[in-house]
Specification:
This protein has 345 residues and is of the alpha+beta class. The protein is 29% helix and 31% strand. Strand 8 and strand 9 form a beta hairpin. The two termini are 44 Å apart.
Length: 345
């Protein structure tokens, strides 16, 4: 073994060339909540990497995979047993290793089946994996998009069935089986898109069932889905770092949410800023950040209204010109505030 991480709890060790039967009964813990973790400053990447390695030594239930973001740089995708586990892990990183991190919602790998001969020749295969929205191919050159799915098993007291079924339907799940284990407990099997359960599904399930429902899942491969790439435009210019791959049904709600958070995060300018969410050429959500303006009519006391209108018109023309030549630089802390997880209420 070259690294400590290669030794997993439950592994059976044996002498060289003397293999034995592995001890049965051990099953590794499955992560229920995922999060992207990035250093606040990329110069701290190596320090954070060594802190993660040391911390995962005595908390083997945390899964770690490398990840990257256009806005935040290199980082990791971590899997936790629950939201409380994630908060405790984050606090330990800060208190024991004195590291500051940014926690974001994670990405999941999608696939695209190419129909364009040119793209197939370029990639050397007809099916490509998409991790970054910048790699998302155009709809015209793809026969279908695929998203990862999991087969989830929920065991719950029967009085919570109604609420849990509604929760699963909201997460685009398809019911596969419903079985009464005894007169009080029910087992439900659903096919979930992985993207719908990685953030807070487990926590929502526990809240709805007063903590009594249990959840387990196994990989169920990929299935066809109506996926789209959603761009965020600021004054008509796309911001690549905030582009996301999303299911068509969730596009409007997510676009509106991102525009609202950006409106709070971007500092006001001397000209009006239009923040838009777009799918291709179609705008699906918009927020407007109002400009700072001077009260140009403050010196007008009474008199003819044409003087007042002339001053306001001159100001409007100046703002229009400023908007044409003005360039909005989105500060890094605005990206962090938009991509960062909202604290649970």
């Amino acid at each position: 073994m070259k690294e400590v991480t290669e030794a997993q709890i439950g592994d059976t060790l044996f002498m060289y060339k003397q293999p034995v039967e592995p001890l049965p009964g051990f099953k590794s813990a499955k992560p229920m909540v995922f999060a992207g973790m990035y250093p606040v400053d990329q110069t701290e990447y190596n320090n954070l990497k060594s802190a993660l390695e040391r911390l995962t030594l005595n908390d083997s239930s945390v899964t770690v995979h490398r990840d990257s973001s256009l806005a935040l740089g290199a980082g990791w995708r971590l899997g936790f047993l629950g939201l409380l586990h994630m908060e405790v892990f984050n606090q330990r990183l800060e208190q024991e290793y004195n590291t500051s991190v940014i926690l974001t919602a994670p990405t999941v790998p999608y696939k695209a089946v190419l129909s364009s001969a040119k793209l197939i020749k370029e990639h050397g295969k007809s099916e490509i994996t998409i991790i970054n929205p910048a790699q998302f191919p155009d709809k015209h050159s793809v026969s279908e998009y695929l998203e990862p799915t999991v087969l989830g098993t929920i065991i719950t007291p029967q009085e919570y069935i109604g609420k849990i079924i509604v929760l699963c339907q909201d997460r685009r799940a398809v019911q596969k089986e419903m079985l009464y284990i005894d007169e009080h407990r029910v087992m439900l099997k659903y096919l979930f898109p992985l993207n719908e359960i990685v953030v807070d599904f487990y926590d929502a399930l526990k809240s709805l069932s007063s903590g009594y429902a249990s959840f387990d899942y196994e990989d169920a491969g990929y299935q066809a889905a109506d996926l789209i790439k959603m761009d965020i435009l600021i004054n008509g210019n796309p911001v690549e770092e905030l582009s996301t791959i999303i299911h068509n049904d969730k596009a409007y709600a997510t676009g509106k949410y991102l525009c609202e958070r950006l409106k709070d995060a971007i500092p006001r300018q001397l000209f009006e800023i239009a923040i838009q969410a777009a799918i291709g050429k179609k705008i699906i959500a918009r927020e407007t950040l109002k400009a700072y303006r001077k009260n140009v009519v403050a010196k007008c006391y009474g008199g003819d209204i044409t003087r007042r209108m002339k001053l306001l018109k001159r100001q409007a023309e100046g703002k229009k010109l400023m908007r044409k030549i003005g360039n909005v630089e989105v500060p890094r802390d605005a990206f962090i505030r938009v991509l960062k997880r909202q604290p649970e209420k």
